[in-house]
Structure formats: C-alpha cells, structure tokens
Design a protein that fits this description.
The chain is α/β, with parallel strands linked by helices and about 200 residues long. It has helices at about 15-25, 30-35, 40-50, 65-75, 85-95, 135-140, 155-160, 160-175; strands at about 60, 80-85, 100-105, 120-125, 150-155, 175-190, 195-200. It contains eight helices and seven strands. α6 (about 135-140) links the parallel β4 and β5.
C-alpha cells in the first residue's frame, strides 16, 4: 500500500498500527485517491438511502484524515464529529471543514460517549484486518440507542477472516439489530479490491 508498508491487511499490535499511520499521514489522501478509494462515498450514500437523519449528529469513528467526513458532508450530513487514535491523521481531519469537533481517542474505548449520544455512527474501513479488532463492532453497537444506525465496511481481506465475519453474525444473532443495508462494491479499484458496506439498526 505504501512504500514502507506494502501489506496493511495483516494482524498487528496497536503500536505498529499507530506507527504506520503516523508515517503515512502526509501522503495518505494522495495515495488512496490514486487507487480510487470509493468506500467513504458509498457509506455516505447508503446512509441517505437508509433514512439516517441528516439533522442529528453523526460520529465518524476512526475518521483518519477526514475523507469519510467530507463524504458525509457532501450528501447533507452537516453535524459530524470525528475521533481517531492517530494524532497525525487527526491533524489532517481537523484542518477540514467537515467536522464540528474532533478528538484523539484510545484504542478500544469510546471515552466520554454514552449510549444514545449519536443516532448514527460510521466506521469506514476501521473495523478491519490490520486495524481495529472484531470486538470494536460490539463497542460501537452498544453505543447506539433505539433505532440508532451503525454504518461500517469490511474490505476483501477482512471478509476472509472468520473473526470478523463471526463477530457480525453474533451481533445479528442477538436479535437486537436489523441489517437494513448490505452491498458489495468497489473499495480500491486500482488494487482490484472490493468492500461490503453494512448498515445495522438497533431495534
């Protein structure tokens, strides 16, 4: 993917992940644009199609440099807050006008966020092999109040990892959520990689 780290989609610890994104922050947007990064726009459009409120705040969890926030804003979501564990990526997001506020988070924690604070939570490319572990889905789902929506994506490598697919199956088996959107499509076309966009809604 990058000259220093050609294979992002392998298991690693938090410190190594932070180092990768620290080193990548400066060129990240140019690199993914060259590969046709499509998932942020697909998630944003899926939320509009699914009826996610454009008048309530959206949490962009793992916002990176802010590409997801820009995609959300482009389709009418004007109140977006962003959080990420990488200070270097977050600095890029903060410079954009897509966010009401941004803050640096800690791995595996939602900090000050309480259940129901956000009607919509987005995790674009975050819960994935080599980034956040499968259990992140539990944390994000638990933060939703009644009728709250969680929009996220699994890229091709993540879809092949049973830890991630089993976690999604377990959440659906709980009977607490409905799958209101599921669509496979382009992720990084130049690398011939797809992703599946999901939207879960708490019942």
């Amino acid at each position: 993917m990058t000259k220093t780290h050609p294979n992002l989609w392998t298991p690693r610890g938090v410190d190594e992940t932070l180092a990768i994104y620290r080193d990548w922050a400066a060129s990240y947007e140019a690199d993914v644009a060259e590969m046709g990064y499509a998932t942020p726009g697909r998630i944003a459009l899926a939320l509009r199609k699914s009826g996610a409120s454009a008048s309530k705040p959206v949490l962009d969890y793992g916002c990176g440099t802010g590409l997801s926030g820009l995609a959300l804003k482009a389709v009418g979501y004007d109140i977006v807050d962003g959080t990420d564990i990488s200070a270097e990526m977050l600095e890029k997001a903060q410079a954009k006008e897509a966010y009401r506020q941004v803050w640096q988070g800690q791995p595996g924690h939602l900090g000050h966020i309480e259940r129901g604070d956000y009607a919509t939570i987005v995790a674009c490319g975050v819960v994935s092999l080599g980034a956040a572990p499968p259990e992140t889905l539990d944390m994000l789902a638990a933060a939703l109040g009644p009728a709250g929506m969680l929009a996220f994506s699994y890229n091709g490598a993540t879809l092949e990892d049973r830890g991630y697919t089993d976690k999604l199956d377990a959440i659906m088996a709980s009977g607490e959520f409905e799958m209101i959107f599921e669509e496979n499509g382009p992720h990084l076309p130049a690398k011939d990689m797809s992703s599946t966009v999901y939207i879960l809604q708490r019942l």
